[in-house]
Specification:
Blueprint (H helix, E strand, L loop, with lengths): L10 H36 L3 H27 L4 H19 L5 H15 L3 H11 L2 H32 L2 H9 L1 H12 L20 H9 L2 H32 L3 H30 L4 H23 L4 H7 L1 H6 L4 H10 L6 H35 L3 H32 L7
Helix pairs in contact: 1-2, 1-3, 1-4, 1-5, 1-6, 1-7, 1-8, 1-10, 2-4, 2-16, 3-4, 3-5, 3-7, 3-8, 5-16, 6-7, 6-11, 6-15, 10-15, 10-16, 10-17, 11-12, 11-15, 12-13, 12-17, 15-16, 16-17
Length: 429
Amino acid sequence: MSDGHSASLSWGARKYAMVILAIVYMFNFVDRQILAILLPQIRDEFGTSDAYLGFLSGTAFAIFYVILGIPIAQYADRCNRRNLIAAAVALWSAMTALSGLAVNIWQLTAARIGVGIGEAGCSPPAHSMIADYFPPDKRSTAMGFYTLGISAGIMTAYLAGGWVAQNVGWRAAFFVVGIPGLLLAAIVRFTLTEPRRGASENREASGRTSNVKEVFSFLVSRRSFIHMAVAAGLSSFVGYSVISFMPSFMVRSFDMEIAVLGRWLGLILGIAGGAGYFFGGYLADQFGRHSHRKALNFIAITVLVTTALLATMLLAKTSTMALLLFILPAAAMNVYLAPVLSQAQSLVALQMRATTSALILLIINVIGLAVGPLVTGVLSDALEPQFGEESMRYSLLIVTSVILPWAVWHYYRAGKWIDTDLARAAEKD
């Protein structure tokens, strides 16, 4: 394919780009979430606490992921986004493979920090490219397809990681998922098309890139953005806590084998979770045809229902019942993401898009990834004297029951302002 600055891309080129970007995001989450299914073995070998496991799976990764996301996004708003994504894939894949060489918890922590640094270069430029591939009325659906990579990645991480960990060892699992990413980096660099900014909306960029302060000021003047970002962060708080510690909960409460658990969770999070990401975006486009407020109200209702579904699952008495009850919330808890990311892109000027993506991801990941698993792990440690191996069950139950209703209120408030704020999106073009 050409270097790709033409004003118009064929439908085939856009479809190809979406498939490649979704695969990139799948690898992103394979390398990010492979750790979750390996935590029980890592805990046994290194003798670490739940609090440190929460730090390792969330905070250590997220600190550099969110901090570096801003300057990388500023670069993406000025330069070639495709090349940036290719370099990011190569870096995080190499650091994932190096995780398998760790001989102590500190080396593993350093490698996970490296994964976070690499993955900071994925989503902001990808979101910006998607906004230039697809017009606003199709953007949530496109973003939903892109976020299918999350569930596909988690499914692959659990299926491959669980089997490899039980039959070969947890270190080998990092090699298996990390090395293929180097090939993907070359595919992105040499086959993907870079779209012209504004091509999907017939808008012309001014050529001037706003700095972070200007973008932040622009966004905080949109009340819908503030509420959406906080709500998505709270949803992510629960989501990352659940996917990080669901294997630990199932192993401790029901004594499940890692390989069997990996198959179950891989299929549930892959199929049901994927349906939630895609149909969340699709339904948001349908509800939002006449009023985007309806789309956010739909998300609020879905999150409220998810609270009850997760509580029911966490109180299950058998492993089979818990896994069956996990199917519906595994889908429902993902509905929010594609519409929120899409609306964030639609709220701003053309050359603010990658930076906007980085800012909303910073908020989502500080609240969700950096804090969620850490708080859940600390709470589990605090409950252990009273509940023993069941402490993770009750930690997840408390987190779910408190955080998700809080998110519902913010989705509702975002809906009150979204249509007014969208009407002002082109002010800085």
